[in-house]
Design a protein that fits this description.
By secondary structure, the protein is an alpha+beta fold. It has four helices and five strands. Helix 1 runs antiparallel to helix 2 and helix 2 packs antiparallel against helix 4. This is ATP-binding protein.
């Protein structure tokens, strides 16, 4: 089981790099060519969401993207260090930010069949996976 890990500061310009790396590693892991656009889009949405959470919460931590090759699955984890998502009245007043967050999660769940979203005291985690073909592609 091979793992590639990216860590980047919460800036929108780093999202594109994460998308490109995720697609390249997915291709090498054996994810079907027809699914690579979904991988790219899902990683972009997850990273953009993490960047937004960091910027709204003025968090200083990094965003981590782990690309994990398993025997029959390709797993991507996008973790933020933005802390727990508040459910206070002041957060509810920021309706458009909440709507953007919900829309991003809806896009991810529409693209990825196997997705888990969790949030803890230190931040959130989006775990997504796709099946791989029997023979990984050599790069």
């Amino acid at each position: 089981m091979a793992t590639v890990e990216l860590r980047f500061s919460a800036l929108p310009e780093h999202v594109r790099t994460a998308r490109l790396v995720a697609a390249a590693v997915a291709r090498r892991a054996g994810v079907e060519e027809s699914v690579l656009d979904e991988v790219r889009l899902a990683v972009g949405e997850a990273c953009s969401r993490a960047v937004g959470l960091h910027q709204r919460g003025d968090a200083q931590g990094a965003i981590r993207v782990a690309l994990i090759e398993q025997e029959k699955r390709f797993l991507i984890e996008v973790a933020d260090e933005a802390g727990p998502i508040p459910l206070s009245a002041s957060a509810a007043a920021e309706g458009s930010d909440r709507d953007d967050d919900a829309l991003g999660l809806a896009v991810i769940t529409g693209l990825v069949e196997d997705v888990e979203v969790s949030n803890g005291n230190e931040g959130g985690l989006i775990r997504m996976s796709w099946p791989v073909s029997s023979a990984p592609v050599a790069v």
